[in-house]
């Protein structure tokens, strides 16, 4: 129930977050306490205001509040403390709601809901600028968002209005000058925001830039304008996008640059050339790389073995086996002294010097000493960037404790914060002297030598002899092993607890494990005693530890058995699934509910069953309403429910009969379907 209230609140915040501060000041904004709950005084004040029945005044310049005018009433402007409380509550709930928080790219941060797995965007102030209502996102700009819905792609604007139909198989570029590159029926084409498609006749195309796009006809490349007219003849072996008024082209193995009229302005003298970006372009001549400006002047000498594009004013360069970073003036701000690098993240540059890794800032100052054997991954969590050593004053301490990387050191793996201190759990890695090994789990790791497997502890002692045919697995204190193509179980000292005699065996889940012999399944306990004899076609015992019930199939029919093997009710169902209070069953292609004794609590007559996992949000309306859809057979949508009913604490399930929905809780009580 708590989750539901938080989710309803978050829906309200989604609506509010798209309104500017000025607009908020012109309408009613609720007050919330530090836990995100409406204050009693605020509720009382709202009731008093509603009794006045005054119309809501909508600012003429604010289309986003037009719909709100039908549901809110005019009140005095919100106080600054109310706005602060709302902002604080919004940020707490943003963190609560989101399952994935992407890195800030410009002013956009891709986010995913942990409840329905839909995607949207936040801005740098944590305001939702695109509702969490889409299956996928890409090629987004502040004006147009590339979105995926029901398996297809298109673009919407900031208000969520579709500007390029959501009907394409893929998106291949952002909207540039009102035109995007998309894929439809296996072919890349152009489409503008008026819906006009063109460019299907070409063998290949590149996205529009500065009003022109390179296209391939036959084996040669030329350029078209936004009307689709060929304005620069197709005569080049390759051609790329315009930048700073120039486009790189290649003829007879040499590259140069043309202007928008097709005139060659930088000669075809380079072995390769890139697109101009912020006044610089990468070029290669005789195996060495550097940068030129739009006048063709070499501004950064062609002396490097490799160069990257500039990002935030820095470019990675390599020379004679060493790597570093240069600025746009060509100065090495991170000297070419390092042997390897990892991608920069939030101002932290992971560099390797000799055997060890450390972190530098953008000026080359050491932030975290060279001490790590490996940087496994860097996290996209913003951390402060200070020149040299980072101070540990109280003002910055909270952000300094944010994890920035997963690292290996002295055969241990752990997470470090911005000070280089361990903030995550540690585990032993990389056992030496073995052909293969696994991470340590529950203090043990599997190791392989000469094709045989065993186990070691964190001290490196062999605890399971290296003599088994497959990787051993430990669960619930017992280790599953394979020998002579049979399975059994050992304890952590290597002693056989359950004989190695089964054709198949699952890991123990608490006290039980499925085992198979001669094509039939049974269940054993941790002493090896048969709980269910080996005679069943299939057994489901997930969550069996909760109620000591097993779901077993015999001769194509399912029944429920207790831990002594006794049938609780007869073996007759075509399918069966657990619910919080009993079982969801299928008989003669019809579905219904029975309780734990086998009593029918929802008649077995429905064509389909749809649990909450079968639902997904297809849109967000106002504060009170969410649009829901039910999916059947893949992505086919066969009914839309405008409001998601309030779920009882025990949970609920939808049944379908003759294309009409019926809603019940798991106790069999029929509920109202909105």
Overall description:
- The chain has a domain at 575-673.
- With 674 residues, the protein is mainly beta.
- The model is unreliable at 1-38, 49-79, 89-97, 381-400 and 615-640 (pLDDT under 50).
- A hairpin with a 5-residue loop joins strand 23 and strand 24 (298-304).
How would you sum up the global shape? extended
Task: Tell me the helix content.
Answer: under 10%
Alpha-beta classification:
mainly beta
Unreliably modeled segments = 1-38, 49-79, 89-97, 381-400, 615-640
The largest sheet, given as strand count, sense and whether it forms a barrel, is: 4 strands, antiparallel
Topology (SSEs and partners):
Elements: H1 2-17, H2 21-25, H3 40-52, H4 80-97, E1 98-101, E2 109-113, E3 119-122, E4 128-134, E5 136-138, E6 144-149, E7 152-157, E8 162-168, E9 170-171, E10 179-184, E11 187-192, E12 197-198, E13 204-205, E14 213-217, E15 220-224, E16 230-236, E17 238-239, E18 247-251, E19 254-258, E20 264-270, E21 272-273, E22 281-285, E23 288-292, E24 298-304, E25 306-307, E26 314-319, E27 322-327, E28 332-338, E29 340-341, E30 349-353, E31 356-360, E32 366-372, E33 374-378, H5 394-400, E34 403-409, E35 412-417, E36 427-428, E37 436-437, E38 444-449, E39 452-457, E40 462-468, E41 473-475, E42 478-483, E43 486-490, E44 496-502, E45 504-505, E46 512-517, E47 520-525, E48 530-536, E49 538-540, H6 544-547, E50 549-554, E51 557-562, E52 567-573, E53 575-578, E54 582-587, E55 590-595, E56 600-606, E57 608-610, E58 615-620, E59 626-631, E60 637-641, E61 652-657, E62 660-665, E63 670-671
Antiparallel strand pairs: 1-2, 2-3, 3-4, 5-6, 6-7, 7-8, 9-10, 10-11, 11-12, 13-14, 14-15, 15-16, 17-18, 18-19, 19-20, 21-22, 22-23, 23-24, 25-26, 26-27, 27-28, 29-30, 30-31, 31-32, 33-34, 34-35, 35-36, 37-38, 38-39, 39-40, 41-42, 42-43, 43-44, 45-46, 46-47, 47-48, 49-50, 50-51, 51-52, 53-54, ...
Helix pairs in contact: 1-4
